[in-house]
Structures are given as C-alpha cells and as structure tokens.
Amino acid sequence: SPSLPEYFVVPSSLADQDLKLYSYSFIGRRMPLWSWNHPNGSALVRMANIKDVLQQRRIDQRICNAITRSHPLRSDVYKSDLDKCLPTIQDIQAAHIKLKQLCVNEPFEETEEKWLTSLENTRWLEYIR
To answer: Max CA-CA distance within the chain?
Structure first.
C-alpha cells in the first residue's frame, strides 16, 4: 500500500505469505498497523475495513488471534469501529469555523460564562480532545 510506511510491526505468528494474501482483502491494501505500544503489553492496532464480507470474519479472527498471541498476558483483542465514534472531517471543519467566528467576530464584552458556553457549543474542544 502506498499509504503505509515501508516498515511496520507484524505479530510473529502471522506468516509473510498470509500477510501478503490478506493485504488484498483490505480497502486500499491497508494492512493492520501496530501504531502504539504500552509497557503493560497493550497495543493500538489500526486497520482498514475488509472488502469481502464473506472473508471478513475469517481474516479478522486470524489477525486478532495473532495479536493476542503476541501479547505478554495473552489478553483478548478489544475492537472499536472508529468510523462510528469519531466526528467526520466535515464536523471538525464546521467546529473550527465556529471557533474562528467566536474568537474573531464576537466581542469579548460578554460575560465569561456566556463566552465559555459559546466555546463549548462549537464542539471544537470535544473534537480535539
């Protein structure tokens, strides 16, 4: 995939030939990417959706098993669909526009409480958190 780094971490129990085969199943060939590691062994792994719904469960299970085997405590994988819980780029852009309007166009003569409420209503701080 042209959008992935040249080198990335792969669980040792996942064979190279399986990895190559599975890469064609992911949208944009975006294989699971080990993004972050915690000293307790927890890891953050990002991956794109799998194209073929019929193959999704098998491939997903194989990759999750490989990640579990690589965890020092053999902890189960917790999956979260970020498409469902994160704002869209359009939401973020709209919040940024509201923030700019608040900071540039609104006089700060209003009470601090009202200004802070207006800031909260932009949702900017929620999104960047």
So the answer is: 65
